[in-house]
Prior knowledge:
Distance between the termini: 28 Å
Shape: globular
Amino acid sequence: MPRRRVALPFDLSRLEVVVLYSLALGLARGRPEDRLADEETERVAMAIAESLAGRVGAVHRAPVWDDLPAALAPFDPERHAVFNLVESLGGRPFTEEQAVRVIERMGFAHTGASYPALRRSANKLLTKRLLVRAGLVTPRYQIFRRIGRHAIDLTLPAIVKPIAEGGSFGIRQSSLANDGESLQRLIDECLTLYRQAALVEEYIIGREINVALWGNRQPVVLPISEIIFEWTDDPLKQFVTFESKWVRDSPEFSGTPGVCPAPLTADEQERVEAAALCAYQALEVTGYARVDMRLRDGIPHIIEVNANSDLAQDAGFYRSAHAAGYSYAEMVLHVLKLAVDPEL
Length: 344
């Protein structure tokens, strides 16, 4: 049975914080270079621990590879809150949300989304179903689970991605298919490499918009960010890939700056904010998240909802928090406050 969660003090100067983060020792799926994203987690954990030092009662760093109960065993839910930065356990897929399940069963208050909300956002199929149910626009899609010839009922071009990966895992320039044969090949490649279902999604030519939100009962939309594709004029190449996020010596990384606030008309801003807020609430997210969308002809097409999004100093969430007037340390402290005060 899960332990009853203890009410922790709102006075953060008395609160002891466990910065819990996953180690990048290997991956049970994907390409070898995918470890770049997991290696980022430790750097973020160190930055967060440094930001909390002197501002909370105590800071403890807790790396974990696979045995999460052992990593948390030295700590007491009555005294410690968890700043959760676990991306996976043992490098396996579908374990980011399972880590939260363990944290909650052990009775710890923690930053970010609950187990049910993280489970919904981590699975792109569950996300899309909830978005559609909420009346939101999302690109048409199909799911494929087995290697072989596939019956395609989508308009090309279409993009192929793993169903349950974040950080643009499995998304490269070659992931966009313009014809049926290349689409068949990409589906089988995704199934083989990532050991999970493949999501095939109609490609939306449009502007790449990121919306950061935080809050529990009263979510707040932070200034909207737009990714600018300086490195190419080809609209079929203007999408965020693994290289543009993680491979620092690639033209995509240096050629896709984020602009915040995004230059939107008043009507576009209202539509984007409303869609992001509705998506956040449709998935019952708490803590913080980033909603990614394509804006075409003034209509937001939601791609995904990233609960527990990247909190690195050069990532999109902090870009928006900084535009709202928060320093990095102030952002970190506010994320922590959301973990211990459900009314925020």
